[in-house]
Specification:
This protein is mostly helical. Helices cover about 60% and strands about 5% of the residues. It has one domain. Strands 1-2 form a two-stranded antiparallel ribbon. β1 and β2 form a beta hairpin. α1 packs antiparallel against α2 and α5 crosses α7. The protein is globular. The mean pLDDT is about 95.
């Protein structure tokens, strides 16, 4: 599956109503870990609406960081997650859910679907996945 296909699938999962932002990201990147998409779905269940409904760090971003930690087995993960966060902020305009959902001219800074798409894409780019 290409990176674009993964990102599209993550958006589809998010829009289905059966996955939150974090779950959608981790589901399409499950093969980067030793866990199943179902196990990841359980682990990430509380990371919606900005870190457990606190409107803090975007759940899609948290999901990408979790996958990075599992993929690297914790080695160099801090630097990788920082790169993911900085790139996400550049593309989306913020990293906090509250800021991403702030309405300007009748639309959010970055809708959930785009946050999910960007988190998957950015993870893949930084981790050197095939596009």
């Amino acid at each position: 599956m290409t990176l674009k296909e993964r990102a599209d699938k993550a958006v589809e999962l998010k829009l289905s109503g059966g996955y939150n932002c974090s779950q959608a990201v981790t589901a399409v990147l499950a093969d980067q870990t030793d866990l199943t998409d179902e196990q990841l779905k359980h682990i990430t269940a509380g990371f919606c609406a900005g870190m457990g409904n606190l409107e803090a760090t975007c759940g899609a971003l948290i999901g990408a960081g979790m996958i990075a930690g599992l993929k690297t087995e914790g080695k160099g993960t801090l630097g990788i997650t920082r790169q993911i966060q900085e790139t996400f902020r550049d593309r989306c305009g913020a990293i906090k859910c509250k800021d991403l959902k702030t309405m300007t001219d009748g639309k959010p800074l970055c809708p959930c679907e785009e946050c999910v798409r960007n988190a998957v894409t950015i993870y893949g780019e930084i981790m050197g996945m095939e596009k």
